[in-house]
Amino acid sequence: MGWLYLAVAGVCEICWVTGMKLSEGWTRLIPSAVTVVMMGLTYVFLALAVRTIPLGVAYAAWAGFGVLGSALIGTFWFEEPLSPIQWSAVGLITAGIIALRWGTA
């Protein structure tokens, strides 16, 4: 169940980062409100995840998932380019998340 909580925390992380971008510096009400709600939810689900997943593993996977999702949203939704080196880094982050998951049965 811990990894499910961690996945939900990761999705909430991506949502709040995206909401922050859409809020245009906290000047748009709806995206700003969504950002604040998602910020709260990401920490609730991260707290639930660390009940059963070691803190360092959970935090690293959560942060990596947020980076991965934010990079993909930035690239495909906001049309922000990534260089080949940056794509390689995203691939390494993905590999790290997978290794963290497989390393904790």
Distance between the termini: 12 Å
Order of helices and strands: HHHH
Number of helices: 4
Q: Helical proportion?
A: over 70%
* Overall pLDDT confidence: 94
What is the strand tally? 0
Report the sheet-strand fraction.
under 5%
Q: Radius of gyration in whole Å, from Cα? A: 14 Å
Shape: flat
Instruction: Give start-end ranges of low-pLDDT stretches.
Output: none
SS content category = mainly alpha
Biggest β-sheet strands, sense, barrel: none
Observed structural traits:
105 residues, mainly alpha, flat
Give a brief rundown of this model.
With 105 residues, the chain is an all-alpha fold. It is 80% helix and 0% strand.
Protein architecture, described:
The longest helix has 22 residues, at 55-76. The termini are close together. Helix 3 (55-76) packs antiparallel against helix 4 (84-103). It is flat, with a radius of gyration of 14 Å. The chain is mainly alpha-helical and 105 residues long. It is built from four helices and no strands. It has helices spanning 2-22, 29-49, 55-76, 84-103.
